[in-house]
């Protein structure tokens, strides 16, 4: 059985990706930050469908904790699946927040880069000794970093970090290709998740305008993205690497 690690798997896109990866016959390690119950619920959903999963805590913004996390992963692999390696890494954990350029503080800018870019970069590096040859990495970026999407005021720092994720993914695909490891990124458009402190729940009035800007006529759902991530790490994605897949339903098309 192959095993995947999905960071930020307690809700939204990460939880959807974890469930769909498990449905394809893989074991899943789900990580969580402050939403432990959400991660346990994801594990329960996977196990109810006959899959196997483990939930582990991880703060992707604190690289100092990565060696201890690697040790926890090694313990979970051996104890749950009788393995000393895993096969797929989905770097999905993150956060979003609108901040006008004039009001963006160094503290917020540093948090964006630490959580969204530095975290995935060094987590992948830390876990690389446990990642099996022929494996796959998928990094969650954002359509906000795409030249094909209309720009939204207030996302200069967020989109800059996510743009870095796209570039990082392409270079990792080059550097890890000798081991047969594929690396891609996915760039969701507006998706109904808990991002920005449950902004879509707090401000539902924005949904019709976002849907009107989307060619397929609605706002994205986590499963729209999670199924693509599951496909990319599977055998179906075996000939795809160094790509950024925009999963937006035609946002601003």
Q: Can you give a write-up of this model?
A:
The protein has a 7-stranded parallel β-sheet, with helices on both faces. The protein has 253 residues and is α/β, with parallel strands linked by helices. The protein has a single domain (3-247), classed as NAD(P)-binding Rossmann-like Domain (Rossmann fold), CATH 3.40.50. It is globular and about 50 Å long. The mean pLDDT is 95. Helix content is 43%, strand content 17%. Keywords: Oxidoreductase. This is NAD(P)-dependent dehydrogenase, short-chain alcohol dehydrogenase family. Belongs to the short-chain dehydrogenases/reductases (SDR) family.
Give descriptors for this structure.
single chain; 253 residues; alpha/beta; Rossmann fold; seven-stranded parallel beta sheet; globular
What is the element layout, followed by pairings?
Layout: E1 3-6, H1 12-23, E2 27-32, H2 36-48, E3 53-57, H3 66-81, E4 86-91, H4 106-127, E5 131-140, H5 156-176, E6 182-188, H6 195-202, H7 207-212, H8 222-233, E7 244-247
Parallel strand pairs: 1-2, 1-4, 2-3, 4-5, 5-6, 6-7
Helix pairs in contact: 1-2, 1-8, 4-5
Q: Kindly estimate the percentage of residues that lie in beta strands according to DSSP.
A: 15-25%
Number of E-state strands: 7
CATH architecture label: 3-Layer(aba) Sandwich
| Overall domain count | 1
The mean pLDDT is 95
How many helix segments? 8
Broad structural category: alpha/beta
**CATH superfamily, please?**
NAD(P)-binding Rossmann-like Domain
Helix/strand order, N-terminal first? EHEHEHEHEHEHHHE
* CATH-assigned fold name: Rossmann fold
Please tell me how large the radius of gyration is: 17 Å
What is the CATH first-level class name?
Alpha Beta
């Amino acid at each position: 059985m192959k095993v995947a690690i999905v960071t930020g798997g307690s809700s939204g896109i990460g939880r959807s990706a974890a469930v769909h990866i498990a449905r394809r016959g893989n074991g899943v390690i789900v990580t969580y930050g402050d939403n432990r119950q959400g991660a346990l619920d994801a594990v329960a959903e996977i196990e109810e469908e006959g899959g196997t999963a483990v939930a582990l805590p991880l703060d992707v913004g604190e690289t100092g904790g990565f060696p201890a996390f690697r040790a926890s992963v090694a313990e979970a692999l051996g104890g749950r699946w009788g393995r000393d390696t895993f096969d797929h890494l989905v770097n999905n954990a993150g956060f979003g927040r609108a901040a006008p350029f004039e009001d963006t503080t160094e503290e917020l800018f540093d948090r964006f880069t630490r959580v969204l870019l530095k975290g995935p970069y060094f987590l992948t590096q830390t876990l690389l000794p446990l990642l099996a040859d022929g494996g796959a990495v998928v990094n969650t970026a954002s359509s906000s970093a795409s030249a094909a999407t209309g720009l939204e005021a207030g996302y200069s720092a967020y989109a800059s970090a996510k743009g870095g994720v796209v570039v990082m993914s392409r270079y990792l695909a080059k550097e890890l290709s000798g081991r047969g490891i594929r690396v891609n990124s996915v760039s969701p458009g507006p998706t109904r998740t808990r991002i920005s402190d449950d902004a879509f729940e707090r401000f539902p009035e924005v949904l019709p305008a976002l849907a009107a800007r989307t060619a397929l006529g609605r706002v994205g759902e986590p499963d729209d993205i999670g199924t693509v991530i599951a496909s990319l790490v599977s055998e179906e994605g075996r000939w795809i690497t160094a790509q950024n897949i925009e999963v937006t339903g035609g946002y601003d098309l």
